[in-house]
Amino acid sequence: MAEGQTTHGIEAIVLVRADDPDKKPILYACPKCGGLNSPAIYIATEERKHQAAREAAENCYTCRTHNTCDTCECETPKGWTRCESCRFKARLEAAVEVPDDGGPYCAFDGDEYFQELDQAADAGLEWVSPCDITYPRIDPADIYDSLLSDMHEDASIDDLNATAALDAAIDAFNKAQTQQSWFGDVKR
Questions:
Q1: Given 19, 23, 85, 144, which residue has the most CB atoms within 10 angstroms?
Q2: Taking the CB of residue 60, how many other CB atoms lie within 10 A of it?
């Protein structure tokens, strides 16, 4: 913002001690909601601390309805420093382009999934991410940890019987799983 410009168009309310003959500012208040800002929370020179507290009061986050995109300067939802378009562009620029691995695919930075690239193109998508494919798995270590946590303090896997049989059954279960879960990878 330009010098002297505020979100509300009104300067901060400066609070001073009534018994201070020098009237040194101690707090700054938002002129709209009265929210207080103290220079004591800033680590800087005294002058900069007071400047920061005044600016915080004049550009009160509580009263602000939106931010300005730090890239294109368009109106941006409160809580974001960049608009959705600029955030998407930055994620796309940071992603590594990879050769087509045959799918499945996910809308880049979205939650639509496609078996074929043609399906994504028909849906109007210019960019897609390859998906990481996972299958349901049981980790025997998780089962043993749970069992041992309910036993005596010094319990170990050596205190359990038939662990080899359980490991073999879990291995067979894991190998039999065919149901896929897909997760898009916006880094590719």
A1: 144
A2: 20
d(CA 90, CA 95): 9
Helix (H, G, I), strand (E, B) or coil at 172: helix
- Does this model's pTM top 0.70? My answer is no
* CB proximity list for 121: less than 8 A, separation 6 or greater: none
Identity of the residue numbered 33: C
**In total, how many domains does the chain have?**
3
pLDDT tens-digit series, residues 97-139 = 888 888 899 988 778 899 998 998 999 988 898 988 999 999 9
Q: What is the DSSP string of 87-149?
A: HHHHHHHHSPP----S--EEETTSS-EESSHHHHHHTT-S-EEEEEEE-----HHHHHHHHHH
One-letter identity of residue 175: K
Assess whether pLDDT exceeds 70 at residue 8.
no
Whether 145 and 164 share a structural domain: yes
Cα 28 from Cα 187, distance rounded (Å): 44
The answer to whether the beta carbons of residues 49 and 40 sit under 8 Å apart is: yes
Amino acid of residue 59: N
**Residue range(s) defining the domain that contains residue 109:** 98-188
